[in-house]
Amino acid sequence: MLMYITIGANDIQRSDRFYSSILCPLGYERTEESNAVIYSLPDVPNGNAGSSTIYVKKPFDGREATVGNGSMLALKAATQKLVRDLHAAGLEAGGSDDGPPGFRDDYSAGFYVGYLRDGVGNKVAIFCNNPDEPTREP
């Protein structure tokens, strides 16, 4: 079972602004520690030590945070509109576009996704695969 994810940040305030803009609307609660911002789901036992926790902090080894080639955080949204809204919020909060919201030929007809990069360059996917939402044309 996946318990937590740690995302390296060089500028905690900048990363906090970006991740708060996309995680808080998905129901994550934000807490701060002296060297980190922590996002956790309120209905998961153990709070900050529970599953699905996301830590945003400087690397433990003291070196600069760098992007992992092939690494990506994927966040599920309930609707395609929410994917669009969160993608826009992430851009406004300092992220960069790595693929606008929409359908992709490589994925199933109902998989709607937008991609962002945070200030370090970490890739984030925000997707919806709700069967009640429209699908791409065949």
Level of helix content? 10-25%
Strand content: 25-35%
Order of helices and strands: EHEEEEHEEE
- Total DSSP helices: 2
Strand arrangement across the biggest beta sheet: 1-4-3-2
Give an overview of the whole structure.
- This protein has 138 residues and is α/β, with parallel strands linked by helices.
- The protein has 2 helices and 8 strands.
- It has helices at 12-23, 80-92, and strands at 4-8, 29-33, 36-40, 53-57, 72-76, 96-103, 112-117, 123-128.
- The strands form 2 sheets. A 4-stranded mixed sheet has the order 1-4-3-2, with helices on one face. Strands 5-8-7-6 form a 4-stranded mixed sheet, with helices on one face.
- A hairpin with a 5-residue loop joins strand 7 and strand 8.
- Helix 1 runs antiparallel to helix 2.
- The longest helix is centred in the middle third of the chain and has 13 residues, at 80-92.
